[in-house]
């Protein structure tokens, strides 16, 4: 029912678009009846709405009245009640496309397939070259997933009109419904040749393509030499929106980054950044906002890019962009918006002394509240620099609350897990580091763990080699969190490029802790490491082991996808 009502609302919107513009400026016959009927319908009084819509039809508001009756009868489950009205009206105006479309939909709704087919043939016979009957009937058939018959109808349409391009979007929807994703993408490409603005419709239609079919979609939507610039841009936009929805924001940005700079392109980049940030692609958002800034030179865009860079772990980029923004802002905005970003970026880079000098340069313009807040950022900078004593001093200047994120980190470095939990859980934005620390604390199930502080401190200082080794060593003394610590040690080793060590840790985790929550992830990464080394048989065995050993794991689809890719590309590494 909900799907049918959505279709009907789309139909009435389309119908409203064809009402002559001259008629909209003055009251039309039946307009008051239509308004009253809409009010009744919106209130859920469908029987009363039927009466009002009948009155609207009688007073000349045929289009609005019939579409309203279609919706109201559908809500009452009495779709066939519309048929007598349509029969009378079609005798008077047999070529009216709105009435013909309503007849087709009604016959389909009541399951009279043969009658619907005859209604289509009658409509088509009035003008065989008219696209409307083919398109309306094919869409209804696709809604019912009767793809073979829809294909037949569209083939008739092409033969009658003498060309397929007019029905490109219809074929695209048909092929997508059939799972013929390459063909669907090519059809959308044809459609955008005449209508580049269809990029959003194309991406929505194609976003359901499974991973194994996506390379074909990408290829079909890649512009070739000689493609008109507007069409090439539409293809780039379509690929970008698809990559974003497929979880590849960096690939999405690559599709858009080559567009010729202009104000409209800059706005597209800003819109893309909003969507990318919403979906977790903050680094792609940073790149898009910076590109937009270079076109518009709006310091607000540089500030947004700096925020995205900091959220994405790019402190260098955040510092550079916030400094650019400062140059274009008045002193008040620079103090409130740009300077804190620069201080936080310097702190993340382990350059707290420079951050203190920057803060001092702003002097009395910095409020006491800002100083307290930035003192905690400075404390984190001193942690990064390895000076815990100065970090504690800075944290105290910032208020030194027990339930404060920096205080939580300092407590964790001391091995005080209870105090660490109280502080870290106050973080407004749970960074990956905070999430990892809280996850460890929940698994450790103890108040104190003196030996773990050094591991987290090494990680905070950026000494990943020492951190990985310390996490592995801590696993021996904390059996309740051993698998978690081994997985963390492996992740740190893998992130620093030490795949040999990571592989050893993944193997140990799977073999010694097969019932742990981390075992499926370790098995998946073990398989991927073997695949990167060119050991396809070993990788295949690990993927299959994951699927058979943990069939309910959320990682099973990734293992299946990897096996399918190996099957389709047997010679690839």
Can you tell me about this structure?
The chain has 573 residues and is mostly helical. Among the domains are: 100 residues, no CATH class; 56 residues, no CATH class. The protein is built from 34 helices and no strands. α6 packs antiparallel against α7, α9 packs antiparallel against α10 and α19 packs antiparallel against α20. The two termini are 49 Å apart. The N terminus is likely disordered.
- The residue-averaged pLDDT reads 86
Major sheet description: none
Shape: elongated
Poorly predicted runs are 1-27
Tell me what portion of residues adopts beta-strand conformation: under 5%
Helix-strand category: mainly alpha
Total E-strand runs = 0
Distance between the termini: 49 Å
Any idea what the radius of gyration is? Answer: 32 Å
* Percentage of residues in helical conformation: over 70%
State the helix count. 34
Brief overview, please?
This protein has 573 residues and is mainly α. It has helices at 2-17, 21-24, 31-42, 46-58, 62-76, 83-92, 97-109, 113-126, 131-143, 147-161, 168-178, 181-194, 199-206, 211-220, 229-245, 249-257, 263-278, 282-296, 299-311, 315-327, 331-348, 352-361, 368-385, 388-397, 405-413, 417-424, 432-444, 453-461, 464-477, 482-495, 499-512, 519-532, 536-549, 556-568. Helix 29 (464-477) packs antiparallel against helix 30.
